[in-house]
Every structure is written in C-alpha cells, then in structure tokens.
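Example S7 (structure tokens).
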C-alpha cells in the first residue's frame, strides 16, 4: 500500500508522465503525427465579433456584419442604433432568445416634485425590463434640505450616493433609533420606517440610487406617513395619541412624497430612546474603502461581512480599464443589477441551451443578469411590529413637524414606549 506522501505526490507524477509523452519519445522510438479527432459538431467560428461602431461614430449604421445582413431601406433611429451596435449587427456568437437586459434610466418616466424627482426601473410592476424579476431600482434627486418623507415598504432598501450627502433616520421594531449623515451607502430592512433628507454639504443637494430586493417593488406604492394619517379619522388619531382632534387640524390631506424642508444640522441627533441606539450602523463609508487592485482594474465589495445590517443585498464597485474585461463568470444563486457610472461596456449573457445575446451599455444604463434561481424559506421565530407612536417619538422633531405640522406640545406627548393596547380616553 502506498504511503500518504506517495498519494499526495501521485497527481504530480501523473502530470509529469503526461507532459513527458507529449513533448517527446524515448531515443530509438519511431513517431508519427496522429491526426486531430473529428469534432462531433463544427468547430467554433473564428469570425471577428468586435463592436462595429460607437455612440459617437460619424456613420449611418447598417444591419451588416461581414457577409451577413443587408442595408436598412426604411427609416432609422440613428442615435439609438449608434448606442446599440450589438443589437443591430450582433456578434455571430449570439443565438436564440434572451430577454432584454438593458434599461436606460433616460427612458423611465420621471416623477417631478417640489424639491426633487424620482424615476424607477422595475421588472414586474411596470415591466420595463421583464427579465429583472428579483431586483428593482430607483434614481432619486433631492434639493438641499428636501425630504423623502417618512415611509416604509415591503422590500429591503440599499442605497448608493452618486453625489452629495443625505441625512437618514430610522427606528427599529425594538424601539432603537439611528440618525446619521451619509455620503456612500445605507441599508434599511424590509418594513423598517425611515426618512431621507438632503444636507447642505453640497449646494446641489444629493442624488442617489435605491436598489430593492424585490422585482415587484414600485416606488409609487410605498407606505407614506402623510398618506396613512390622511386616511385615518381624526377622532381615531386623537384616541391613539391621547390628545385632541384639533392637534391634527394642519396635517396634510394627501401624501407629500418629496417636499422642501429646512437644511438639517450636521450634528443632528435623534431623540434619546429608552432602548438606546441600534447596535450596528445603517450606513457604510464605502467611499473610503481601499479597492483591491487587479491587472485590468479594481474592485471594492461591501456585504454582510463588513456592512453587518445589509443582509439581502451586496455591492461590488468594479472599475475596468479600457480594453480590459471582467472575467467570464456567473453567480450561483443571486441576480446581478448593474448600474454604469462612467464609460461604456459590452456584456454577453449566456442563458444555456445555446441562447446568448450581447448588449451595449453607456453611463446611466442598467444591466440585469439573472442568477441560477433557487428558493429560500426562513422560519419566523420572533414577532415584531412597528409602533407609529414610538416611530414618531423617536424621530427628530423637526422631521415630524415638517411632515405633520404638529405642535411642540403634541410631539412631547408622543410615547417612546409602544402603547401596544391603547386605553380608553
């Protein structure tokens, strides 16, 4: 029986034997070149498949690649065709059917508000990119001091700041609160109430991406504080908060969504909670993170290993030098939602069964690459709820005033502890 050392060396010995027989034969032995075996299918094509033009090429693009295709006789949308050479004159390696995996935010309807705007990409609710079944995205801008009102939604929210600084606030189901200024990343779990406000650090305010872990997400269907209270009878509000109906005479009659507000102070602190602040921050200083250098570019990664609260979404910021490429790869179980900040790129999706398609991207575009789909079920072992009273009590009073115009007296009567069951008044 061979020793453990021999077993460990065996692969190397076998490799040396193969290399030896490949590179030569013992002296005195006649050799002859063996023919290559015939493939069971044709060899892959050697046809060149580089992009044929770019967005700024001074040409009228045609549906031709080498000897394939023909000129276009009908009308053309030249600017759009210049941006998408791989669709008009695709590589010969493209084949079959792959759903559209490109969406420019420039094609999204924009919701304009006093103080900012928001536009979105969804795969299911609006179906602008149906392939995006697992993740949806929003691009939002807030002018200095403007507020994305107190709200929550049924998807986790992950944010990437493109320019400026925002002040975010949140309160957990356990009554812990968190307020911070952020210029990089933030994350809120599904169902956790929060707000976003542009600081005065940048005269232009702030612009950011919001990414949600649910392709059914719709930015227009979030649960808004003002929308909720506008649809609750005032006598119920008075009973819930143990105050008079007159205290709510000036609350908005409909949702605010995005609206102007006073610029928050840099050292803004949340009200002191009897349950303390959150054990982990809901922000992450991604901008200061040192990237990992690779031969063709750099990579930075933030996930639950270094951004502890981000349990459902991770980010990789990848810089690819001109002419370099992100190596051929796939994600075993997770979809990829990519936003192009600078430059241009080309991505080919392989969807198995001979299906492949190539797309061209410019800055401001979204790419979506499905992962190998699986299913995950978690056991719910702890009941949690979020108290409206406690949420408002532990939110900076200036934000509550900006939303509901409540008096200082009414705000002082808000409960920092969950009432749970409200006593008769």
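Recovered sequence:
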């Amino acid at each position: 029986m061979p020793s453990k050392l021999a077993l460990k060396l065996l692969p190397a010995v076998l490799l040396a034997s193969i290399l030896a027989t490949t590179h030569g034969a013992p002296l005195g032995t006649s050799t002859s070149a063996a023919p290559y075996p015939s493939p069971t299918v044709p060899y892959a094509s050697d046809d060149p498949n580089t992009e044929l033009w770019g967005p700024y090429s001074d040409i009228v693009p045609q549906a031709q690649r080498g000897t394939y295709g023909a000129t276009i006789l009908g009308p053309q949308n030249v600017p759009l065709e210049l941006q998408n050479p791989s669709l008009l004159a695709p590589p010969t390696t493209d084949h079959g059917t792959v759903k559209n995996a490109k969406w420019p935010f420039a094609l999204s309807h924009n919701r304009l508000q006093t103080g900012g705007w928001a536009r979105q990409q969804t795969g299911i609710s609006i179906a602008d990119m149906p392939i995006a079944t697992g993740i949806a995205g929003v691009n939002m801008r807030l002018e200095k001091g403007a507020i994305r009102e107190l709200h929550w939604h049924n998807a986790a929210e992950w944010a990437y700041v493109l320019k400026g600084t925002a002040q975010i606030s949140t309160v957990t189901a356990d009554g812990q609160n968190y307020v911070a200024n952020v210029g990089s990343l933030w994350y809120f779990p599904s169902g956790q109430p929060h707000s976003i406000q542009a600081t005065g650090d940048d005269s232009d305010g702030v612009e950011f991406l919001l990414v949600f872990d649910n392709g059914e997400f719709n930015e227009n269907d979030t649960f808004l504080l003002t929308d909720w209270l506008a649809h609750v009878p005032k006598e119920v509000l008075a009973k819930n908060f143990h105050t008079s109906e007159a205290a709510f005479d000036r609350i908005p009659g409909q949702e605010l969504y995005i609206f102007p507000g006073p610029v928050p102070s840099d050292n803004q602190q949340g009200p002191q909670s009897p349950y303390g602040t959150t054990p982990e921050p809901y922000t992450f200083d991604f901008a200061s993170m040192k990237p990992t250098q690779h031969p063709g570019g750099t990579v930075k990664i933030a996930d639950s290993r270094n951004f502890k609260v981000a349990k459902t979404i991770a980010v990789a910021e990848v810089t690819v030098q001109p002419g370099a490429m992100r190596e051929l790869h796939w994600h075993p179980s997770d979809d990829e939602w990519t936003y192009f900040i600078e430059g241009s790129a080309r991505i080919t999706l392989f969807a198995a069964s001979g299906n492949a398609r190539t797309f061209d991207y410019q800055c401001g575009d979204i790419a979506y690459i499905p992962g190998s789909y699986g299913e995950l079920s978690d056991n719910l072992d702890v009941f949690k709820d979020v108290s409206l009273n406690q949420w408002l009590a532990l939110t900076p009073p200036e934000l509550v005033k900006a939303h509901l115009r409540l008096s200082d007296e009414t705000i002082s009567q808000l409960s920092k502890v969950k009432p749970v069951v409200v006593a008769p008044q």
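Notes on this example. Confidence is low (pLDDT under 50) at residues 1-33, 373-383.
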